[in-house]
Amino acid sequence: MSARRDDASLVTGLTTASERNASGPRQVLELDCVDMVYGTGPTAVAALRQVTLGVHSGEFVAVMGPSGSGKSSLLAVAGGLDQPAAGEVFVSGTPMSRLSLAQRARLRRRVVGYVFQDFNLVPTLTAAENVALPLELDGARPAAARTQALEALEKVGIGELAGRFMDQLSGGQQQRVAIARAIVGSRSLVLADEPTGALDSVTGEEVMGVLRDLADDGAGVVLVTHEARHAGWADRVVFLRDGRIVDESSVDSVDSLLASAGTAQIHDDGTSPSGGAR
Ligand SMILES: Nc1ncnc2c1ncn2[C@@H]1O[C@H](COP(=O)(O)OP(=O)(O)OP(=O)(O)O)[C@@H](O)[C@H]1O
């Protein structure tokens, strides 16, 4: 059993439920027949329907699909921000439905890192302070939190910018700070929702390279993107439509999809750049 796998059980005090993974790569995220619904009654919206997905340690999975297909909802249930109406979500083997609110919040802080399009950084804090913040909120001593924050900033290639405030950093550098904040404290699952949306294409590719490195270092990474060329950094691509997984492709087929495409976006009508239905 790896040290990382122990994270969740230490956090929650529950016995992990991932004995099924004992001999294979450690599953950091598993969605098992997940339904997710917004609202109730006649206005209820089914955002996810019977979604089953596993992401293991060291794996980079891209999620694509038209607007409204459920991509952000999938990340929200994966990270425990929202509860499924049916099915189960396992994070590092721990079934989220069996946790109290406090346990779930703790697991989110210690195991799951989020990266958003708009960075969500605190402008009045330095890069190091932003990255250290989740650890300090979780009770870490400031000196220890700072040490880990500096390590995380080094890992994403901007250790020398630790003392800068957000308005002294480029968009790409700010996103690296946000990624460092998502991984600080050795969190094992990184959920990124359109993290390059506010960046130019060159900087966006650099951020993809950082996410790829995180996966190569052993994190499970789930990326929501509209950009097929960004999905090309992933090991596997999951396509959603109307809340259902309609296709899963290896990166080889994404590469061939790109090769035959003159554009790099999945269209909002759900067609691929090559014109095929997704
Ligand atoms: N807070 C909410 N209340 C009600 N319905 C919602 C809410 N958030 C999302 N939805 C609905 O759930 C469905 C899935 O939305 P979701 O945001 O997950 O899609 P998405 O694929 O991420 O879309 P986009 O690419 O536009 O960000 C959509 O029909 C959407 O209108």
UniProtKB/TrEMBL annotation:
Molecular function (Gene Ontology), one example: ATP binding
Annotated ranges, domain ABC transporter: 31-267
Keyword Nucleotide-binding (UniProt): yes
Keywords, sorted A to Z: ATP-binding, Nucleotide-binding, Transport
Pfam families, sorted: ABC_tran
Stored InterPro entries: AAA+_ATPase, ABC_transporter-like_ATP-bd, ABC_transporter-like_CS, ABC_transpr_LolD-like, MacB-like_ATP-bd, P-loop_NTPase
Name of this chain's protein: ABC transporter ATP-binding protein
Organism the protein comes from: Micrococcus lylae
Organism lineage: Bacteria, Bacillati, Actinomycetota, Actinomycetes, Micrococcales
